[in-house]
# Entry
Amino acid sequence: MPVDKELLDILACPKCKGKLVLENDQSGLICNACKLKYRIEDEIPIMLTDEAIDLTRRSPANGG
# Structure
């Protein structure tokens, strides 16, 4: 079951408060401004900047 559309409409990037885009495979939410990906696990977005994937490095944003 996909992530609820109404939930996606109200979510914003916790770092910059910008718009998030759902990946085609629904594995995460992308902030194009911050270049971060927030994973989706069991239909729940993990909206923690420490857990985000830095798309410029392809590793967790906190370097570990």
Observations:
- Residues 5-10 form the longest helix (6 residues).
- Helices lie at 5-10.
- The CA atoms of residues 26 and 32 lie 16 Å apart.
- The mean pLDDT is 88.
